[in-house]
Amino acid sequence: MRPLLALALLSTSFLPLLADDAKSASSNVPRAEYPKVHADGKVTFRLKAADAKKVQLQPGGSDNGLGAKAFDMDRGDDGNWTVTTPAAVPGFHYYWFVVDGAIVSDPGSETYFGWGRQCSGIEIPEKGVDFYDVKDVPHGEVRALWYHSKVTGKARRAMVYTPPGYDKGTDKYPVLYLQHGAGEDERGWTTQGKANFILDNLLAAKKAKPMIVVMDNGYADKVGQQPRGFDFTGFEAVLIEELIPKIDATYRTQADRDHRALAGLSMGGMQALQVGLKHLDTFATIGAFSAPPGNQFDVEKSYGGVFSDSAAFNKKVKLLWLGAGTAETRFADGLKSMHTALDKKGVKHATFESDGTAHEWQTWRRSLHDFAPRLFQE
Amino acid sequence: MRPLLALALLSTSFLPLLADDAKSASSNVPRAEYPKVHADGKVTFRLKAADAKKVQLQPGGSDNGLGAKAFDMDRGDDGNWTVTTPAAVPGFHYYWFVVDGAIVSDPGSETYFGWGRQCSGIEIPEKGVDFYDVKDVPHGEVRALWYHSKVTGKARRAMVYTPPGYDKGTDKYPVLYLQHGAGEDERGWTTQGKANFILDNLLAAKKAKPMIVVMDNGYADKVGQQPRGFDFTGFEAVLIEELIPKIDATYRTQADRDHRALAGLSMGGMQALQVGLKHLDTFATIGAFSAPPGNQFDVEKSYGGVFSDSAAFNKKVKLLWLGAGTAETRFADGLKSMHTALDKKGVKHATFESDGTAHEWQTWRRSLHDFAPRLFQE
Questions:
Q1: Which chain A residue is nearest to residue B112, measuring alpha carbons?
Q2: What's the predicted TM-score (pTM) here?
Q3: DSSP per residue over B275-292, as a string?
């Protein structure tokens, strides 16, 4: 079949034909019927695999809102395998299928870079919650900014949110540097996290100060350096020596520490703490989403002993923000123990708990929604 | 395993260990070894599917540079299935695997929206050709612009290339509206096509005029309208009534027909011809990449008879550009017949042939590289 004809047919197929209360997930590609989300939060997945012996749905991660274990799918007479899960936790969940041992994406899903590859993902609406929806309010732009890094010897891409009206105005803006988690990349905060819509909506409601948000790739191996897990020296060099000067040279920024924040989720939160607390002449605000160090935290010694003189710390730092989901026990416990130690030491900080969510994007959307309005208040 | 630990391990695995002349494809996700491209253009694909009975590599489309037919893959003792294809045509090729009847993406590949879903894709370098590489030259930005469409009743996203220096200057720029093909979306021209790097490189070499390039989604169903293949009435209304006014209100544009072009590939080229030639008060330049109408073309009657008065057409239109790849016979033949008819009628136009390439992105990269320098010359 000729490609144009095939595509013409394709473009009119896969129309949703849903007889019940279920809706095709908003995370699907256009016109893909499955997966679909039922009114009660259950999810039905489907994959055509006519000749497969075994097909499973695998949620991504041990505390995924779809559950932890793989679901066996059932084969129908038409070669489609289906499964309906118990009610899922609201938010965004990575998943994939396992077809006779092969880890594969769902052709019906848009793809989302996580787990070091392009994964399927499903969006489960949260009833009554619309702070990350795309609404008919003024929208900022998300810009792909390419820059050349001498540190890594490679071209890199950062995503940059500029607030509504940026192009028409002459104001200078504060900047939030906002990092993704391990296995994700610079696309995560907007594609999965909807950070741009969260900011758009906060700004429309005048609940946050207009700001630029810079989302870089958190992986940066120095020239000749082999990739190592959680070694942030390359990223630190890129951020301090290359990215911040590039951003300040490219955009109308308020280029001083009072108007610069560093935050991130999971690995990005570790970076915010490790790199940010080391560079308090660069950042006055630090946010760690689902990244408290837990039992390893020593209020006197951790992070170069930055908390040991709490008076000096409190004078210098405008905001230290720590958050976690209540369902990600390790991080929730880490948050509590760090909070207790900081309180005892007299280190000012803010904490946030996301009720019922785990190490997932709903925790981080809510974290940003709590964190952003606190930023850059004089 | 806890997610952070799993991801830490993940981040240091999959390091390329290539003993021969082959290199991991630039279209792979970071650290994925396969697919890999050999010096002679052969490609080795690999997928782990321990329990599968049959695994095939399927090139996307009948004139794909990997070939047309599915390749059977061979199972190794480790559960990995591999195949090495004959030398591939340079450029970008969609592909997927078929695992016991399931159409699935390659976890090693970045994903590319085509064929109505997220597909795998492989980049085959063309020797001595670097016009679409990311080089150390000033880069424009690619901006995601969200806007609300009354025509479709939905939020839409257009990708907007602004040339290097846009933010710092006060100049106004001409605008090229550049559309993707069927089954693709507004991301195609930059992700697959590398349009931004093509423009960056042309501008650095002073071979093109600085311009804004707007890449919208070509699918637009009016409120209440069911999707229909190649019905462009919704897109026409969005483009003329909503997108162009939005672009002219948002960016520093030269907002007149002389400084506005409409072009596209395949379905996008059909849109450029059908919509553009109908709106010559809006566009002075039209470019159709791999979209000539072939035998149906009637120089007197087609496109509302716009060519019937060639003198008037020549006076009004600054550039009509038509191109195709020599290996996409249907379109190459269509190009020749349209060219002959237009010549006979005395209608000025430019033609372009991409040597040895088919209905694929290499044809369209080369088309843009030929087309863009001709634009907005006074």
A1: A111
A2: 0.94
A3: IITT-TTT-SEEEEES--
Q: Are strands A102-104 and B154-162 parallel, antiparallel or unpaired?
A: unpaired
Q: How far apart are CA B67 and CA B71, in angstroms?
A: 9
Contacts of B133 in chain A (CB under 8 A): none
**Residues in chain A within 8 Å Cβ distance of B146:** 134, 139, 196
Return the closest-CA partner of residue A54 out of A65, A34, A70, A38.
A70
Does residue A106 contact residue A120 with C-beta atoms inside 8 Å? yes
pLDDT digits (tens, 9 = 90+) for A1-53: 344 444 444 443 344 444 578 999 999 999 999 999 999 999 999 999 999 99
Q: Are B266 and B359 in contact (CB under 8 A)?
A: yes
For residues A210 and A204, give the distance between their C-alpha atoms in angstroms, rounded to a whole number. Answer: 10
Which tens digits make up the pLDDT trace of A341-359?
Answer: 999 999 999 999 999 999 9
Cα dihedral value B277, B281, B285, B291, nearest 10: -20
Q: Any CB–CB contact under 8 A between B312 and chain A?
A: no
The confidence score (pLDDT) of residue A227 equals 81
Length of chain A: 378
**Chain A stretch 38-97, residues whose beta carbon is closer than 8 A to a beta carbon of chain B:** 47-55, 61-63, 79, 97
Answer for the pair B318, B258: CB distance below 8 angstroms, yes or no: yes
Contacts of A164 (CB under 8 A, 6+ apart): A137, A138, A139, A140, A200, A203, A210
- So what's the pLDDT on residue B5? 43
- Judge contact between B90 and B99, C-beta under 8 A: no
Q: Touching check for A182 and chain B: CB below 8 Å?
A: yes
Supply the DSSP symbol for B322.
Answer: E
Is the CB of A172 inside 8 Å of chain B's CB atoms? no
A117-A121-A126-A127 Cα dihedral, nearest 10 degrees: 160
CA distance B210 to B142: 14
Q: What ipTM was predicted for this assembly?
A: 0.93
Q: Which residues contact B116 (CB under 8 A, 6 or more apart)?
A: A7, A10, A11, A14, A29, A30, A31, B183
The closest of B18, B79, B11 to B44, measured between CA atoms, is B18
Chains A–B, number of C-beta pairs less than 8 Å apart: 227
Question: Checking DSSP bridges between strand A91-99 and strand A117-124, what pairing results, if any?
Answer: antiparallel
| Number of C-beta neighbours around residue B340 at 10 A | 12
